[in-house]
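Researcher: Sequence of WD-40 repeat protein follows. Predict its structure.
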Amino acid sequence: MNLTKHWAAQLEDYVIDLAWSPDGTRLAAASASGPVSIYAAADGAKQHELPGHTDGTNCLGWQPRSSSQLSALDSPLVLATGGQDGAVKFWDAAAGQHVTTAELGSAWVEHLGWRPSGGSVSSRGSDVAGVADPGPGSASPATLFAAAGKSLFALRPDGSVAHTFKPAPKTISALAWQPAGGCAAVAYFGGVCLWDADDFVAQKEFPYGNGIHALVWSPDNKWLVSGNQDPSVHLWIPEEDVELHMSGYEGKVKHLSFDCTSHWLATAGGRDACVWDCSGAGPEGREPSMFPHDAPICAVAFQNTHGLLASASTDGVVQLWSPERKQPLRATVRMPAAATKLVWSPDDTQLAIGSQKGLVYVLKSEA
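Model: Prediction complete. Tokens:
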């Protein structure tokens, strides 16, 4: 297994967010100072530099596209960005043009999440969705959740506000959509709330007596996992009201990633990528696999449809692992600066790395 440099680019500041377009043809990279660059995936050519947000950009996200939209030439590539100006901006990424802005107040917009487009309302499961079944094949409407301070908003792609939620008790610290699209999990100091995607009511609330830094769902929708300040990992099975707790980390757990089968959960709160077996009844009582680095881990990311795990540490090292192997380490590369983001391309052939020094690297993964 080899990781080889495909192309690289330089931003003017820290790479605060990074994401591939749904069709894999473009990579969007946000500089903390504000500008957002759109690169061609094939060769790294800069297609557009969007002005982003004057006071600084915090996050970005591509609107998901269905399989029919991916093949349609006239289907727009919509990119949303959130900034320190309290706004969410929508962009036509193919044209490099600003489309509209949603002004949400004075608090920084720190978390964005598009409702997944993969399933119909009728496929979500009544226990968690909590909504009436409108019939087979009903498409999920395009909805973007945006979190700013204690406030959460549901936005339409035209920038209009579909719903303003009841403020959270504390600042919202993480946002993660259920893969089926039935609800979004929103975390704050003291707990997690599941907000329904259609009628915007609270489906369930899970108290947790500490700070939460990260949230992730398993792809099969079974597990909701938080990475915590205390430091620990907490797991819920929302449909069954089951909770598990895994502690013993060196530091705050800020990095989480599930593999595509929902079997392996990668977590990081120290110098090891700690990988739990979440099959069956879950990881409680099982020993995790520990994949070591020489410095604290700053990012973990499983591939989208394959089994490789990428992990990065603050000394610039990026490693690839196969958790199911007796000798799991597959490749090691050393980058010039610590990673801020690791993001696999939709087809898993390229790994994009954003760095603290503003460098964006795209590496090819080759067997």
